[in-house]
Write a structure and sequence with these properties.
By secondary structure, the chain is an alpha/beta fold. It has 18 helices and 14 strands.
Length: 497
């Protein structure tokens, strides 16, 4: 389909689309208003990257840090910490808690959701503090044993230094002449002091290394009391409702279009009837039945085009009698017949307009003429054509043959040989005879009458006629062996002309 076809469908189904959109938006708004607000508070914790190596050269193990952060995330939602959190908050049930590891960073985000914004913020901050305290309490295993062993060795070395110093002082005091013993005690004291100093250096190095390797957790952004709820998101719900409603309305509109057998466009009517469209009469705001349109109106121009198209048909089969009908009532066939006859009379033709609806007479009302005598009287041999034909009064060259008094057997009269003879007689006296008949599917004799004229013009009202009805009418014309010269589309859009 072309773009203009899609646009035409959207315009036809605009109320379906609009109502669907409005209803969806209203549902979204009501749902948003009825939803209890949920507030979200987030505390951000930093896990410092752990170095490894010596004091002189250190590198950072990023993979280990990622594993550590994932471990802490699991610990934050473990039973011991959550139990302590529940106890301190004094809650029967904990709020919703999520711990996210932020990619490519050293951060953990502790998020708490609750209907109470203050509780959400307090819970997030307290959980972060509990996690930090828990990690400090448990600590890590790296470096602890080495420090303890060095501490024991230092204490022992310190005692040995004291003993060596005491022995050296005693020798100097008691036996000053024992130079060999004093020298030996002095060397032992120096060895003990060197050992003690070495152990102190090792202990300090181990202590500093352990300090660097201990994991460092800190809160870098505490949670604050949220001012606005995280759910429901009014703007998002409204936008989503609008989009869902719009696309849902479009989908429903196109679905109804596919299910709808109503004929809207000239192309649809041509495909349904398998006949050429000779003209189209645009919509008019004037609602008076059968009224002749102003000569400067688009409708009048449409009838002039229709008259010209009829005049250019096959000259080997001259068109002197024309039957105007439709598939079903109220498609505007009488209006078409009147204005087409008027357009022909304007072209200096002598035109006879015949009301063939013996049940529901119309033409005499339009032209404000008496209907005491008419077609039914001719068919019942109660009058001649010359006696009952009336001048239209309004339009020069246009004569009217009203239906006359309603008979008890209209179908038999219309299908009689007298009707056929009357049509031939009228064709001899007038340049064009236009017969306004009942709808084909409403009255059986309309199709039978179609075989007695030079041509049948089928009126199809746009946006009203249904495909099945139009096809059934065309089939009746084919079975009646009528010469269907084409279709005129009533109430069409100007862009379809």
């Amino acid at each position: 389909m072309e773009l203009r076809t899609y646009i035409a469908i959207i315009l036809r189904r605009k109320w379906i689309i609009a109502i669907t959109t409005v209803v969806t938006v209203v549902v979204a708004i009501v749902g948003t208003l009825l939803t209890t607000p949920v507030y979200q508070a987030t505390t951000t914790v930093r896990v410092a990257t752990l170095p490894h190596g010596s004091l002189e050269y250190q590198s950072y193990d990023v993979v280990y840090n990622d594993r550590l952060r994932n471990t802490y995330a699991k610990m934050a939602t473990a039973a011991p910490i959550l139990g302590e959190l529940q106890r301190r908050l004094g809650l029967a049930k904990l709020p919703s808690i999520k711990v996210n590891v932020t990619a490519d960073s050293e951060l953990l985000q502790i998020t708490v959701e609750n209907h109470n914004p203050v509780l959400a913020a307090n819970a997030a901050n307290l959980l972060a503090n509990l996690l930090i305290a828990f990690v400090k309490t448990t600590g890590t295993a790296s470096g602890k044993s080495a420090q303890e062993m060095l501490s024991d060795q230092i204490a022992q070395a310190e005692d040995e230094v004291k003993q060596a110093r005491a022995q050296y002082s005693s020798l100097v005091t008691t036996t000053p002449n024992d130079l060999v013993g004093i020298e030996s005690a002095n060397r032992l004291l120096k060895v003990k002091e060197d050992t003690y100093s070495a152990l102190l250096g090792l202990y300090e190095r181990a202590r500093m290394t352990q300090g660097l390797r201990d994991p460092v957790l800190s809160v870098i952004e505490p949670a604050s009391v949220p001012a606005n709820p995280s759910q429901p998101r009014a703007e998002q719900n409204l936008a989503l409702g609008l989009l869902v409603g719009l696309f849902g309305g479009l989908g429903l509109g196109f679905l109804l279009e596919n299910l709808d057998t109503t004929l809207y466009t000239t192309n649809q009517i041509e495909k349904a009837t398998e006949r050429v469209v000779l003209g189209g009469i645009p919509q008019s705001k004037r609602k008076q039945h059968g009224l002749v349109f102003d000569s400067t109106s688009p409708q009048a121009e449409g009838f002039r085009r229709l008259r010209i198209n009829l005049s250019t048909l096959d000259h080997n089969a001259p068109l002197r009698t024309l039957l105007v009908t439709s598939a079903e009532p109220s498609e505007g066939k009488t209006t078409i017949a009147i204005n087409l006859a008027y357009a022909m009379a304007q072209a200096k033709q002598r035109v006879l307009l015949v009301d063939c609806d013996l049940r529901l007479a119309t033409l005499h009302k339009v032209f404000d003429l008496p209907n005491d005598y008419g077609l039914s009287d001719i068919l019942q041999h109660n009058a001649s054509l010359a006696q009952v034909v009336q001048d239209s009064k309004r339009i020069s060259g246009l004569s009217i043959l009203s239906s006359g008094a309603a008979p008890s057997n209209p179908s038999e009269l219309i299908n009689s040989s007298q009707m056929t003879a009357l049509i031939k007689q009228a064709a001899e006296q007038f340049d064009m005879v236009v017969l306004d008949t009942p709808a084909l599917l409403a009255v059986k004799h309309a199709a039978a009458l179609a075989s007695t004229v030079d041509g049948v013009l089928l009126v199809v009202e746009s946006a009203r006629a249904r495909q099945s009805s139009v096809r059934a009418a065309c089939e009746l014309l084919v079975n009646a062996k009528a010469r269907s010269i084409g279709v005129v589309v009533n109430n069409t859009e100007l862009d379809q002309l």
